[in-house]
Design brief:
Elements: E1 5-9, H1 14-30, H2 43-59, E2 62-69, E3 72-81, E4 90-98, H3 107-121, E5 126-132, H4 136-143, E6 147-157, E7 163-172
Parallel strand pairs: 4-5
Antiparallel strand pairs: 1-2, 2-3, 3-4, 5-7, 6-7
Helix pairs in contact: 1-2
Keywords: Acyltransferase, Transferase
InterPro entries: Acyl_CoA_acyltransferase, Bact_Acetyltransf, GNAT_dom
GO molecular function, one term: acyltransferase activity, transferring groups other than amino-acyl groups
């Protein structure tokens, strides 16, 4: 039996995880999660999304992690480091995705802990994120001590096309130095 391992995806290791990331996105969207794509997402579009990440990863603007068993990606998350001169203290958590059959194993928490530790190393004392209001993700982020700021109405469409509000969260990790 293989054990899931947390890995940081670099530009060099990207090709190894490309298929798994595309499949994770496809399964997440077709499972109903609102992560920026509609229900008509196909694998070609999922691969195009994956490929769009590589330049930002290579530039160091986007950090990407996977939890994988061999090349089978079970979960993934991203940290987008703000590059604006007045925002070098913050980063955005993006696209935390866990395969439905891998939920309940603590993979999301493991990814978030790694994101927070890495954010501190990059002198990012403020993390923010958004998630569909009313989703199970809200309880998850609250349990990790993220603070809910409020909601934006009709912010984005779910994969089936219904517009839903998004909830905005933040967490301070300490003062950047």
């Amino acid at each position: 039996m293989n054990h899931a391992q947390l890995r940081r995806v670099t530009a060099e290791s990207f090709a190894h995880y490309r298929h798994g990331l595309a499949q994770l996105l496809f399964d997440t969207v077709h499972g109903g999660a609102s992560v920026g794509f509609m229900a008509d997402l196909d694998m070609q579009q999922a691969y195009a999304w994956c490929d769009s990440l590589k330049a930002d990863i290579a530039a160091g603007d986007l950090l990407l992690w996977v939890v994988a068993e061999d090349s089978h990606v079970l979960a993934s998350a991203q940290l987008s480091l703000c590059q604006k001169p007045n925002g070098l203290n913050r980063a955005e958590v993006q696209k935390l995705m866990v395969l439905p059959q891998a939920r309940g194993r603590g993979l999301g928490r493991q990814l978030m802990e790694e994101i927070e530790q890495t954010a501190v190393k990059h002198k990012r004392g403020l993390l923010h994120l958004d998630t569909e209001a009313g989703s199970t993700a809200e309880a998850f982020y609250s349990a990790l001590a993220y603070h809910r700021v409020g909601e934006l109405p009709d912010y984005c469409a779910t994969p089936d096309g219904r517009y839903r509000p998004t909830a905005i969260y933040f967490k301070t990790l300490g003062q950047p130095t």
